[in-house]
UniProtKB/TrEMBL annotation, chain A:
The keyword Signal does not apply. Residues 95-296 form the ABC transmembrane type-1 domain. Belongs to the binding-protein-dependent transport system permease family. This is Peptide/nickel transport system permease protein.
Automatic annotation (TrEMBL), chain B:
This is Glutathione-binding protein GsiB. Keywords: Periplasm, Signal, Transport. Residues 1-24 form the signal peptide. It comes from Rhizobium viscosum (Arthrobacter viscosus). Part of the ABC transporter complex GsiABCD involved in glutathione import. Binds glutathione. Belongs to the bacterial solute-binding protein 5 family. Pfam families: SBP_bac_5. The keyword Signal applies. The keyword Manganese does not apply. Its main location: periplasm. Residues 76-448 form the Solute-binding protein family domain. CDD domains: PBP2_NikA_DppA_OppA_like. It comes from the Bacteria.
Amino acid sequence: MIFLILRRLVQAALILLGVAAITFVLLYALPADPARMIAGRSATAQTVANIRHELGLDQPLLVQFSTYLSNLLHGNLGRSYAQKTEVWTLIAARLPATLVLMLAGILVEVALGLTLGTIAAVRRGGFIDRLVMTASFVGVSAPQFVVALLLLYVFAVTLGWLPMSGYGTFAHVVLPAATLGVLGAGWYARMVRSAMIDVLNQDYVRTARAKGLSSRRIIFRHALPNAILPIIAMIGIDIGQFMGGVVVVEAVYGWPGIGQLAWQAIQQVDIPIIMGVTLTSALAIVIGNLLADLVAPLIDPRIRTR
Amino acid sequence: MFKRWLRHTTMATMVALAPLAATAQETPKQGGDIVVTYKDDITTLDPAIGYDWVNWSMIKSLYSRLMDYAPGTPNPIPSLAESFTVSPDGLTYTFKLHKGVKFSNGREVVASDVKYSIERAVNPKTQGPGAGFFGAIQGFEDETGGKTETLSGIETPDESTVIFHLSRPDATFLHVLAINFASVVPKEAVEAAGGDFGKKPVGSGTFILKDWTIGQQLVFERNKDYFVKGVPYIDSFKVEVGQEPLVALLRLQKGEVDIAGDGIPPAKFLEIKNSADGAQMIVDGEQLHTGYITLNTRVKPFDSVKVRQAINMAINKDRIVRILNGRATPANQPLPPLMPGYDKSFTGYAYDVAKAKALLAEAGFPDGFETVLYSTNTDPQPRIAQAIQQDLAAVGVKAEVRALAQANVISAGGTEGEAPMIWSGGMAWIADFPDPSNFYGPILGCAGAVQGGWNWSWYCNADLDKRAVAADSMSDPAKSAERTVAWGKVFTDIMADAPWVPVINERRVVAKSLRMGGADNIYIDPTRVINYDAIYVKQ
């Protein structure tokens, strides 16, 4: 176990270094000149040159990158060009909101996906199965923006049950989490269904059935724990996805997370923020996968012995 | 910051000048708290740095400056200055400050604060985009060149007197002192904030920043010690950021929001306009904006004036106005109609496909030619670029549309020989202050036709440049009318060379709740965007 963690930590460091390098090179290759943008349209060439010097943009790429890395090692993500504030301050201010949304979203999609997938597997081939599969297909292919606006229109505007946008109370998290959950649940439902069908055909299930165990006991005690494994890995992936990819949901519901921050930074070519958010998301993916790897053996003893 | 100031840079809106009469019918009331929404985060409230149309109004209200504008108008009036005099040669401006004005940290505002604030805005270390506006002050080059951190042209003989010495007469100087970059800040607060002044602003304006939850909201409260009695009217305004315009509009209709700062999404515009309360909710006004196509005079075949004139005749501007749901008017000259100097009698190039074809043939392109048209990739700009593409096709010009991220389009425009044509939509010029000179230098003058510059036509006419300098030197207020005419002539004469196709003057739209009072022009103020000092809540 310790070896696994150590190996994963070394891998994580390498992945983060790789992400930092690739992002840095990509951003450096942009034709847009941050100094020119900061200086504004009325600036003289001298002013632009001064700003470029202040930001170290006149240094060779390798020097800039090593400066960036050494700052990074000291926990310094740099300063935003547009906001003239520490990048870490901006990310830290928004991180809690994204974490809350991420957890709530994962909770909804896992609960929904597990339930629907199990029902579909048990009723395989029947009407309910087809209904669930169709719904999950719609779920995974519907555009986030449309689903978000639809839920908002029904539950906030028409029915008035929930606030339209904002952050802070339980009521605020319901709609954004439901949007993410509904969209993600489709994948889970399909995966649980096929895993369950697989398990239900196994010999030991047949044995259990022959022993006269109730079908509820068979499903919850024997089949589900075995079908749940791929879900754990998927949650790990979702952690990373939600960290970086909830821009649309955050925008529609006015959710103050880092997705919004990233989107605004991209529009402003605010490179330090883009770098910071990318690294934070990469870190989240690494941590998510690491957690999934650590949790899996707890559920399935077979992995532990390997 | 960047994108927004490009699109709507500040001082955007200029309106019919009758509305003060409209306000007079209704006495503004004191009190009330309102909610304002914006899609994007507020970047910074540091007046030396902030340069987008959202933070512009907030900075206006947090700080005071020597000069300001009469609400809803483009007319400069003394503000922090009690009075001022200008020497006959136009080179020396002497200001007397109001006594007893206090920063929100309790200290009195003195002359040296004015000097410090402007030097700070010019200092390259500040990385402020407004430094260039102070170019006429003596010693400007020494400071921007890094030789010194002070401006020799600003003198403060006593606590309430500031004297500016200019190196050349500058008729726009009073405007420059009213611009946000000239806001007065206390040195000790800037230094205490350690580079974070933009998040911890201290000023002497009408409002004080009470709370800023990053990514969520800012709360501004009335400055009880503001030196003009009875201003502002509202007690506080809360700015909620990260609000999708469509959602903001729904919330406005439900009464949760008072001003939807991003206006009305095009898809909802007609629905709102035709609703029962629509007329009272929509504030729709002209702004100092022109959208244009640049024709790169250093790229073939646009180096031929006949080709450029032909392109001017080939564009169907009415159709582009229709694409924008009528929220614009066709343009025929660089200046927008409400800018002093706009020539109403000038007709420019009429839409005439046959004549355009004939001119192209005369220029040696009877079968047209192939070229590239750049545009930004956010709606509706690509659609407008396609309309332009079709118009060009009708005269035989085959244009490939390159819709790219804004930063890339700007970069292509500033690289010599790179972009033959650029549709400026989404990045078009909006005046920083209501003076025609602001529409020339960087975008049509020789100074802007440099690597990384904003003169994307790469047009440089030494004769017009000379006339522009001469017009700006007429700083004697008595010559103001003459100066305006001189400037106007520069812009109509430029059209003979046709470096641009002026296409549209876009209007600005804001949505407000029914309980908000005040004339339309303080919601689309020519110098403030939203004038938080002048709006009020009807009881």
